Amino acid sequence: MTPAERLAALVRIPTVSDPAVRDEAAFAAFRERLGELYPLVHERLERRVVDGGTLHLVWRGGPAAPIVLLAHHDVVPVTDQPWREDPFGGRVEGGVLHGRGALDDKGPLVAVLEAVERLLAEGVVPAGDVHVVSGHDEEVRGGGARAVAAALAAEGVRPLLVLDEGGAVVEGVVPGVRGPLAMIGLGEKGVATVRLTTRSAGGHASVPPRGQATVRLARALTRIEARPFPARTNPAVAAMAAALRPRLRRPVAAVLGARAAAPALGPLLGLLGGVPGALVRTTVAVTRLAAGTATNVLAAEATAVLNVRIAPGDDLEGVTERLARVIGDPSVTVEAEGEDPSPLSRAAGPAWDRMTAALAASHPEALPVPYVMVQASDARHFTGLGGDVYRFMPFAITAEELAAIHGADERVRIAALDAAIAFHRALLAEG
Q1: Of 138, 102, 111, nearest to 377 (Cα)?
Q2: Is 80 left (phi over 0), alpha (psi -120 to 50) or beta?
Q3: pLDDT tens-place string over residues 396-426
Q4: Are residues 325 and 198 in the same domain?
Q5: Which of 281, 309, 339 is the last residue of a domain?
Q6: Per the structure, how many domains does the chain have?
Q7: Where are the alpha helices (DSSP H) in 155-234?
């Protein structure tokens, strides 16, 4: 079988992480199929199943510092999405493999396992231990990867680097910059769920009072939208600007390279909004609203749920306090739970050099560019082990392919899969 055929076989197993439809038999079948597809990996690596389904494979090597490679195998649902293909068909045509998980995150898992299987067949022994971790509940922010990280900490494992999903090799994402960019996440934003609640007496809707719960909640939401969190230059954004200089025209490159320009970079990106704005500020999205029980009854309670992505430099406590100040209404309670941003890894040093050397082997035209990942990943659980933690999947993907992650018609080009295998082969053979 080819790597694409093996990935297709895994895509066909619907390991959907949704409590309403989760099929544990599918997850068990997935683990069994991995053993069939990668016999040397399962014969020669230590195999552990953690927290009910997360796989932890250990390839013992020499005395050098270990590395940890993460790639979860659970996927998001496909319900109510207008797929043109069978999302679990794994069809390959025209050099493209179609199906849920092709990129997020079974494709990266296959890239890792293909590299390990080939190196085992060649008799290669890694310079240090290699830990391959495949979470079974990443998409629902479960505890599988967290349990593995805790076990590694208890064993005193201190990796040189940890690598998980994140940025990719892309083009056209930065205005005015030509050529492929390898966007490598140095950290990720924190994630919080904030609940706003306000109450009133209720009663018959024919006599509505002033200051209804729904109105006060609406006022709170409009105040939050009118006063976004400030945009700031964080170290990862400054490193990103420095990395982009070789691909920028001289006047722009000179401006970005000036020390005096650094404080203004964050506010400038904030004005652009969208992805650039999300890199430099804490963002707030209203994701759920609830109020009332009938069309002719005043709502006694109104609630809103906010998804907040916390930028480096902010924390959960400060975010909660600022939201309460902006709302300015003591009748609206603000309750929050979540995690602070992860520490930022270095865009220099042995781990970074090993990453960029592997990238030069697999994607020689790509410029390594550090950034802050705005999504959450299992990597956040491994930041306490020491070493550098990066978020990067070595796949060249288009804007359309990126948009299909978590959406309809997720797919991966076979050439991109082959290059990702080459990246991991170079990464593991290094040292």
Answers
A1: 138
A2: left
A3: 999 999 999 999 999 999 999 999 999 999 9
A4: yes
A5: 339
A6: 2
A7: 213-226
Q: Tell me, what's the pLDDT at 255?
A: 54
Residue in the block written with tokens 């966007």: 183
Q: Which domain holds residue 405?
A: 3-188+344-429
The CATH number assigned to the domain holding 215 equals 3.30.70.360
Cα distance between residue 132 and residue 231, in whole Å: 37
Q: Is 205 in the same domain as 328?
A: yes
CA distance 409 to 405: 8
Residue 205 is predicted with a pLDDT of 84
Euclidean distance between CA atoms 325 and 329, whole angstroms: 8
Instruction: Kindly give, in sequence order, each residue whose CB lies less than 8 Å from that of residue 6, ignoring residues fewer than 6 positions away.
Output: 37, 38, 110, 114
pLDDT at 209 (0 to 100):
86
Separation CA 208–CA 248 (nearest Å): 60
Among 302, 321, 339, which residue terminates a domain? 339
Report how far apart the first and last C-alpha atoms of the chain are (Å, whole number): 30
Scanning 228-306, the segments in alpha helix (DSSP H) are 235-244, 250-257, 262-272, 274-280
The per-residue pLDDT for 258 is 55
- Which residues in the chain come in under a pLDDT of 70? 250-262, 431
- Is 81 found in the same domain as 228? no
CB-based contacts of 330, cutoff 8 Å, min separation 6: none
| Strands 161-170 and 181-188, sheet pairing | antiparallel
Span 90-119, pLDDT tens digits: 999 999 999 999 999 999 999 999 999 999
Compute the residue count for the chain: 431
Which two three-digit tokens encode residue 311? 């930028």
**What are the two backbone dihedrals, phi and then psi, of residue 343, each rounded to the nearest 5 degrees?**
-60, 155
